[in-house]
Design goal:
Layout lengths: L4 E4 L3 E6 L5 H8 L4 E2 L8 E7 L2 H12 L4 E9 L6 E5 L2 E3 L7 E3 L4 E5 L2 E12 L2 E10 L6 H8 L25 E9 L5 E5 L4 H7 L1
Parallel strand pairs: 4-12
Antiparallel strand pairs: 1-2, 2-4, 3-4, 5-11, 5-12, 6-10, 7-8, 7-9, 10-11, 12-13
Length: 209
């Protein structure tokens, strides 16, 4: 399998990850000499950054920990948000009934971590009597499944999500988790700002136009 390279220098390699590929398998099978600098859910497509040394990985890891990395996602969600912009500021923990799931709000168990997600409406649309919205999402923290959990908490779950939104309508032509990592912005070892962007998947472009 060939992957589109979005950016490369002496320290970093950024690829356009397809939906449906688990990042650990991807790294071990196709980039064994590189080190994952962060993760994306299996169903999420878009920018994935790999480091070329442990020193570089640690440098980027510290930026993530200090919330200096800027990440932007695009998602298609079920429903029409009432407001054009919103913020979900709700800690995330584990679900008490399904070990695969995370949960925001009442009923969480285990270690609870603060989490904040901003979203902005790009386009509302309707298909077959079902309402959907294309949104831009900026997670300010990096919790597991954060966008999926927070959008569900806001009552606008990510479309086609088998774990957090099963059995609900999907937009025409989309047969995957409707979540895409659009861009990642970070600094390299010399302090230069690097912004890597991934184009919208074809199935999202139809909605955006």
């Amino acid at each position: 399998m060939k992957f589109k390279i979005l950016y490369e220098d002496e320290d970093y390699l950024a690829i356009d990850k397809p939906s449906g590929i688990e990042v650990l398998d991807l790294a071990e099978k196709y980039f064994p000499e590189k080190i994952l600098a962060h993760r994306l859910d299996t169903g999420t497509s878009g920018v994935l950054v790999l480091a070329k040394s442990e020193k570089v990985r640690e440098f980027l890891k510290k930026q993530f920990q200090k919330r200096e990395v800027k990440k932007i996602y695009n998602a298609i969600v079920n429903g029409w948000p009432k407001n054009d912009r919103g913020v979900v500021d709700k800690p995330i923990g584990r679900s008490p009934v399904d070990f695969r799931r995370r949960l925001a709000g009442r009923g969480v168990k285990g270690k609870i971590r603060e989490a904040t997600t901003e979203y902005k409406v790009l386009k509302r649309f309707e298909e077959g009597g079902n309402k959907f919205t294309l949104v831009e999402v900026k997670p300010k923290t990096g919790r597991t499944h954060q966008i999926r959990v927070h959008m569900k908490f806001a009552n606008y779950p990510v479309a086609c999500d088998p774990l957090y939104n099963p059995g609900k309508p999907c937009p025409k032509g989309i047969e995957r988790l409707a979540l895409h990592a659009k861009s990642v912005e970070f600094k390299n070892l010399s302090g230069k700002t690097i912004k890597v962007e991934s184009p919208l998947p074809k199935e999202f472009q139809r909605v955006y136009i």
